[in-house]
């Protein structure tokens, strides 16, 4: 693979590993990438079914001296632990997975792997289980142990001991043979981030196995293995970073460790110290010399050498470090992969991988080797296509981008160092490639920017003109900016926005071209300028195409059934002497790709496929069109034969794992194609290579041609307005197959038997006799069927009606299946006989009729529908489906029946709502329903709701009774209700007095006296001889202080009155 790979995975101790042949392998989401360790060039990329979380290099057997790997000796492979709980074995040379998938050892995703000697590998998962496997074995684990509680984050093995690090800060030394474990708390807080073993000589020929442990505590501890136990011997405190760290970096501490094979020793061959490489804070790499001194305490190591220089170091957290001989590789949160020299502690090479989808590519004829890559991580990368590039690694970071955005469109300004960019939030701006400075226009689209294009406007007689920028948003807005700016020199605010008064004006091309009128719901989905005259082609959301010349509409055609996703003028479309004058290629979300000519006439069409982008070759006197599909790119040559053109597939470029989102022909070479996709890769192809030749018998239905049309085959925009949002393709639930969904008349199995063939031949002769000789004998029952002897289908209408009736009768014989019953109903409806169809359904079963069949009987008119609906209502009630039964009653306009059905089903509230909406206020059924509602509410304890129901039927006394509660203050609402309704009965008087006394007990005498005064006033108006003061005395003890005070105040109020 030539191109830019995806970035390594983050927050994993085993995201990368080095191989014996000098390669570097790392995991990246659902792919595994293999690099050349010396140059950084990509050897290959292999996709996985699930996310690859851990990789490690392993061998299949003991290495034999002098034996070549390819000759049957040791074979090095890479074992990948995946999120689907399995391990897969990758042959890094053949770039293919080999052997059996290792399954059955884990119940959770595999998070760590390590080689264990020759021919074995160990893996750990999120529940703390460690499994040991034979490399390229039978796919089952040889043993499994519970090592720690909680997720396993990292592993390393030496001999029979496997060191296991966990998210809980513990390290376990697991003996894979005996199953013995020894756990130590290597971190007071935070997870263990990395483990690494080494063996050092400690004197007199003795050696010790040392384990380096990195954790989130910003320190590294070293443990000696004594027997099966770990003893802490050294501690390394990470120095403070030289550069200031952001708050996010301070919170994302990750310490990676790796032992260097270089060590210093004495004359006896014993090591005095060993070298350890660790990550520091903020992206530094540190080299430590660990003395092999073992005393009673813990030896502290403080001095470390920093890899440099600083301007080439990582800028963010380092996650993996791998060492082979004198070379060190590292991966980081800044998406860099770097190679370092351990002797000089300096960088050999590095590149920034792609951290998001590749949404767009931009080239410039003035600088044909330079490619700009729009990435979903918010950055813009560059790639050098120069064939003289020595290392083959042409990646560079052109622009770091704006945080938390995606670059969805880019365009290089001709004859300058300026690149225009569009973001997923609708902003449009430019940046300078040389300085990295950027600025944004003050106005932005309502959705993500879909496309950008520069166009040169020249006055008459001028050779050069002014370049203008046109941008298209996913909301259909199409703007040509009136002014352009130089981001390296223009004045901007702190937010990077240029002066709105000078640069905020634009020409609304969507409105100019008729895309935004009051009654028009269409929107612009794609556009393109012709290279010389600036003819303007527009693709619309309703499948229409239009061509414009400086605002004047030249033609408008509709050849696509769905939205147009891409429009591209042929490079020679402005040349009247060319065979390709006015040629325009268009693609649609319906899967159609069409070549148009003068006036939009269709010249030819390509086979249907889900196309995400199209591009013409710049080669002269030829029409080559590249189509980006799912997982492949197809190159078509449009050939001319006599008076017509037809497409010929000349190459299929396979390699992408997902959608190819952008494709272009290189400007410097007619045989080179560049592409990018949602697999986060940028690729460079030579489409004339033999490996890309179309396969024999390849048809559009082949999988990698992506013939299945994707409704969202247009440009994948991260955000899109609701106006133009297309529905995602969702896997729908499989619908139950029925007689209504399949064929009603199917060939019988007897048709291909000798008897069936003979009967069919006789029937053909009989039909010819009836048609040509006038034979009119009545058709038999056997001839009124569809089968070898059937003739009714080929006769007149009466015979066809008799055929349908006979088939329906046969299908509805005794105990028909559901399939046959539905088939019989459909056959009767073919005849227009809904009455027979209804009788067939009603006689077949006492169960409710299916909703699909019920909906069909509407076609029989009210007479048929009323019979079926009445029967359906009864069946639904028996089945307990009272709500559905009520709906059926309403379909017959039987409101009273629906109300009674709901009441019988206990749905009294629904019945009351229906009655209140559809019956007169004085209707007795409405009153009865509300009485039942009040009783139901009282039964459940909803006294307030019951009171409302009582009031609605003019029963205020019952409402007062329902509102009274036994607890303190429970009479106040009832008393207020009684006063509002003017009730003065004994029960109401007692309630009002009780409420007044409760108010008085809380020292609220004013409200209490006012309540009693209202009661007394009502009694006086009705000439009642009942005294309120007597009611107070009767309700309390004679010497009650509250009653005495309340009586005094009430009498004083009466005297004043």
UniProtKB/TrEMBL annotation:
Alphabetical list of PROSITE patterns matching this protein: WD_REPEATS_2, WD_REPEATS_REGION
InterPro entries: Gemin-5 (IPR052640), Quinoprotein_ADH-like_sf (IPR011047), TPR_GEMI5 (IPR056421), WD40/YVTN_repeat-like_dom_sf (IPR015943), WD40_repeat_dom_sf (IPR036322), WD40_rpt (IPR001680)
WD repeat start-end pairs: 653-695
GO molecular function: mRNA 3'-UTR binding
Annotated ranges, domain Gem-associated protein 5 TPR: 791-995
Keyword terms, alphabetized: WD repeat
Gene Ontology cellular component list: nucleus; SMN complex
GO terms classed as biological process: spliceosomal snRNP assembly
Pfam families the UniProt entry points to: TPR_GEMI5, WD40
The keyword Chloroplast belongs to this UniProt entry's keyword annotation: no
Name of the protein this chain belongs to: Gem-associated protein 5 TPR domain-containing protein
Species annotation: Ostreococcus lucimarinus (strain CCE9901)
